[in-house]
Here is the input.
Amino acid sequence: MNKVFIIGLPRTGTTSISVAMLDYGFKVAHTAYTKHAFTLADIVSDSPCFCDYKELDSLFPGSKFVYLERDLSLWVPSMQMLVNKMKAELDLTTGTFNPILKRTFNQTFELATTAIPDDAEHLKACYLHHQSEVLDYFNGRDDLLRIDISESSSLSRLLQFLEVEFDGTPIFPHLNIGRKVACWKEHKHPNKVNANSAGPEHRKFFEYANKRK
Here is the structure.
């Protein structure tokens, strides 16, 4: 197995699954914005994975992918909160967030081209479009797992998919609940990988990103 990419959208449990996998010996990056971060990590979640899974599939053949699902009645209001909290910093021109984060959010949720980016119907359409594209891309393959982390069997199914022995932990931790968005930064663990890790090419990202702008 090469890498594991968590390709569920934000607010589907990417932080919870990332934290859970740290204790199973995986080196985990919750977001990765440099080549070196991808080199260091066994598991990468959130941005850019939810947007760039096709490119990552090509760059890392033999990897596994995990698509996180969430009930839309819960996901939409959670995503509305996130968009409103982050939209100023996600602006492609004036926002201060990492360019990879800004690109992936704007491509997936059309923030710069939608009159009301936090509109419930717009976000629902974005979720369903992303889901459809993921399922179409992986149709007929055995390297994608679909789980909803709120289901009691989801952790055991994930560990079986990753060929890791299940230790009986009942469920995933539920993190970033409500308006909280920074649990990953607050969680201390030696297996965490810095999203901006510098390596031989400093903080360079993959070339494909330049073609997607």
